[in-house]
Each structure stands twice: as structure tokens, then as C-alpha cells.
């Protein structure tokens, strides 16, 4: 029996917990801030249900084989008491978040040889605690090597396609390039398609070009086609559509991952001497969007 604890069963964590709990060889628990009774997830393959063990505080935790951290990237320190309770000498910890800083954010909490960064491409939204819609097929990318292989193996019997990649850094930056333009609808609170113009295209393209340039300076391969498809996706965005979790978070008045998704482009751009004026401007504006919205928790 493989024991798996998921810290933060929101849209992503709840979806992954429900899929993993379908495997009778897994003992799945969820570590919550807001209690849940069970999980009901509408997936591309139909509705799946699960009733994992629910831990409401770190004092209820004990060492497990795997911890999957699926909190937002600004909640790192909030996971520390959970990690202390759930980690034994052989526990592996997967960080399943957006952004490119999985390892550096958690380096002070988890030994490097047991920290597994994960890129996830899986659109999911939560309507209530434990009630989630996974709207498209899920993809997970992990670094090549034993830890990555073991993480991918956990998802072998799920809908989610998990694979190892020798060039994992490129997986992260390609995803970030696709995601960084979502800061526009997060600011305007409107889909970009219906208000598309040459000026809007220039802004979206600049955001993605800057991200790709910084990613390349960090050693990633980010093909120009990724920039072009980011622009095309924003052009095609229909009225009423949500451009992912940062847009959904602003609409809900939640804290946003501004720093992990766009601030990082500015910071690492500075490190490499790459100007990132579009990201810098929109980060400043979104962070300044004021009450009742907060930028980071
Ligand atoms: N949603 C999506 O479609 C996608 C999201 N991602 C990324 O995945 C990561 C998770 O996002 P998402 O699932 O959308 O976020 P959610 O806000 O839906 O879920 C985060 C969860 O973390 C919980 N949490 C926060 N602090 C603690 C704590 N101290 N102890 C226990 N639980 C805690 C929250 O609790 P509470 O229930 O109280 O809110 C919530 O359940 C982010 O990095 C995001 O960018 C990546 C791809 C797609
Ligand atoms: C765009 C999407 C859904 C892709 O997985 C995402 O990363 C997010 O919502 O944050």
C-alpha cells in the first residue's frame, strides 16, 4: 500500500486526490484548511467520487510515502507544519504548482534529493469545497530520474498523462509562456477576444516574448510557435471565458499568484539584463488593484 497525502485539495489537489483514490493500492489522505466531506469531480471521463481520509491539522498527520503539495505558490510557509508532520526519512514531496520556482521555494523545507517539481497542465475549477470540474485532459511533466519516474507511475491508472522529461526546465517555461498573458483578463476582468485590437495583440505578444526570452536565458527551449499560440489563444478567447486560475482568483476576490507567474519574469529578467516592461507594468497594475483584492496571501 502506497500512502499519499495531498496538501491543499482545491481545484488541482482535489482532482488529483480523486483520481489517485480510484486505485485500491493507494491510501490517500487530504490535508485541508477548509474541511471537506468527500470529493466529487466532473472529469472528461465522467464523474468520479472519492472519500479520502481528511486531516484537519498537522497533529493528525504521520509520515507517508508521498506528499503532493497543491497549494497556491504564495502559501509555501503555510505548508511547513504539514511537511514536518508528513515527512519521514524516505518521504518524497512533489510540488505541483504553476511557475518555475518549485525547487527554490521549497528548498528550505524539503531535502533536495526528495523534492520533485511538477508541471501540470490540467484546467480545473472548484465550485464548493470538494466539488470540482476538470474541464480537459490532464498532463503532468516531471524531471527524468528515479523520483520523476516514481511520481509518473502514481498516475499510471488515471486519465492524467504523466511523463518524465530530460529537459524539464523547458516544460516549465513553455507552460509559463502560455500562462503569462492571462494577467490581461485578470486585470480587465474581460475576455481578450471580444476586445482584440492591434494594441491588445502587441501587449499580449510582448508579455509572451519577454517570458520566452527570460526562459531561454534560463536555459529553456521555448520555440517561437509557443509565443504565437499564446497570442492566438488570447485572440480566440470568447466572451465570458476564464483564462485560468489567476483570472478566476481575481473574479472571486482571492489572492493571486502574481509573483509566481509574472513577477518571476521581471525578477529573472533583471538577473539576465533582459528588459520586461510589459510584465513589469501589468504586475504593478494588478498588484495595485487594491481592496477588496489582495495580491498575495
Ligand atoms: N486550477 C487550475 O486549472 C490550475 C492550477 N494550477 C496551479 O496549481 C496550483 C494550485 O492551484 P488551484 O488548485 O487552482 O488552487 P486552489 O485555490 O483551488 O487550491 C489551493 C488549496 O490549497 C489550500 N490551502 C492553502 N493553504 C493551506 C494550508 N495551510 N493547509 C492546507 N491547505 C491549504 C486551499 O484551502 P481552502 O480550501 O481553504 O481554499 C485550497 O484548497 C497553483 O500553483 C495553480 O497555479 C496549474 C494548472 C491548472
Ligand atoms: C491555463 C491552465 C488551466 C492550464 O493548466 C492553468 O495553468 C491555470 O489555470 O492556472
TrEMBL record:
The record's Gene3D superfamilies line, in alphabetical order, gives: N-(1-d-carboxylethyl)-l-norvaline Dehydrogenase, domain 2, NAD(P)-binding Rossmann-like Domain
A single GO molecular function term of this UniProt record: 2-dehydropantoate 2-reductase activity
Q: Which residues form the Ketopantoate reductase C-terminal domain?
A: 168-288
Q: Which residues form a coiled coil?
A: none
Instruction: Fetch the InterPro entries from UniProt.
Output: 6-PGluconate_DH-like_C_sf, 6PGD_dom2, ApbA, KPA_reductase, KPR-Related, KPR_N, NAD(P)-bd_dom_sf
**Reaction(s) catalysed by this chain's protein:** (R)-pantoate + NADP(+) = 2-dehydropantoate + NADPH + H(+)
Task: Cite the Pfam families for this sequence.
Answer: ApbA, ApbA_C
Q: Name one GO biological process term.
A: pantothenate biosynthetic process
Give the highest taxon in the source lineage. Answer: Bacteria
Q: Signal peptide span per the entry?
A: none
One GO cellular component term of this record is: cytoplasm
- Pathway note: Cofactor biosynthesis; (R)-pantothenate biosynthesis; (R)-pantoate from 3-methyl-2-oxobutanoate: step 2/2
Q: What is its EC number?
A: 1.1.1.169
Name the UniProt key words of this record, in alphabetical order: NADP, Oxidoreductase, Pantothenate biosynthesis
Q: Which residues form the Ketopantoate reductase N-terminal domain?
A: 4-144
* Family membership noted in the UniProt record: Belongs to the ketopantoate reductase family.
What the entry lists under PANTHER family is as follows: 2-DEHYDROPANTOATE 2-REDUCTASE, PROBABLE 2-DEHYDROPANTOATE 2-REDUCTASE
**Summary of the function given for this chain in its UniProt record:** Catalyzes the NADPH-dependent reduction of ketopantoate into pantoic acid.
Q: What is this protein called?
A: 2-dehydropantoate 2-reductase
Amino acid at each position: 500500500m502506497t500512502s499519499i497525502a495531498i496538501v491543499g485539495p482545491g481545484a488541482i489537489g482535489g482532482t488529483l486526490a480523486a483520481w489517485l483514490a480510484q486505485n485500491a493500492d493507494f491510501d490517500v489522505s487530504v490535508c485541508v484548511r477548509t474541511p471537506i466531506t468527500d470529493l466529487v469531480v466532473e472529469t472528461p471521463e465522467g464523474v468520479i467520487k472519492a472519500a479520502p481520509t481528511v486531516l484537519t491539522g498537522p497533529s493528525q498527520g504521520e509520515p507517508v510515502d508521498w506528499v503532493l503539495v497543491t497549494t497556491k505558490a504564495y502559501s509555501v510557509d503555510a505548508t511547513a507544519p504539514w511537511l514536518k508532520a508528513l515527512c519521514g526519512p524516505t518521504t518524497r514531496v512533489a510540488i505541483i504548482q504553476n511557475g518555475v520556482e518549485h525547487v527554490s521555494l521549497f528548498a528550505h523545507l524539503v531535502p533536495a534529493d526528495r523534492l520533485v517539481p511538477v508541471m501540470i497542465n490540467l484546467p480545473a475549477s472548484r465550485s464548493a469545497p470538494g466539488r470540482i470540474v476538470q474541464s480537459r485532459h490532464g498532463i503532468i511533466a516531471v524531471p527524468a530520474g528515479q523520483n520523476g519516474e516514481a511520481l509518473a507511475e502514481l498516475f499510471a491508472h488515471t486519465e492524467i498523462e504523466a511523463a518524465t522529461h530530460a529537459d524539464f526546465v523547458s516544460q516549465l517555461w513553455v507552460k509559463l509562456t502560455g500562462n503569462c498573458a492571462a494577467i490581461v483578463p485578470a486585470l480587465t476582468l474581460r475576455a481578450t477576444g471580444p476586445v482584440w485590437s492591434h494594441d491588445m495583440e502587441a501587449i499580449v505578444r510582448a508579455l509572451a516574448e519577454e517570458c520566452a526570452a527570460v526562459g531561454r536565458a534560463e536555459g529553456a527551449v521555448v520555440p517561437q510557435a509557443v509565443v504565437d499560440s499564446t497570442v492566438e489563444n488570447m485572440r480566440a478567447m470568447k466572451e465570458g471565458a476564464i483564462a485560468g486560475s489567476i483570472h478566476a482568483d481575481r473574479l472571486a476576490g482571492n489572492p493571486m499568484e502574481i509573483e509566481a507567474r509574472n513577477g518571476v519574469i521581471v525578477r529573472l529578467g533583471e538577473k539576465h539584463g533582459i528588459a520586461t516592461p510589459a510584465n513589469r507594468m501589468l504586475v504593478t497594475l494588478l498588484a495595485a488593484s487594491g481592496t477588496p483584492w489582495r495580491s498575495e496571501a
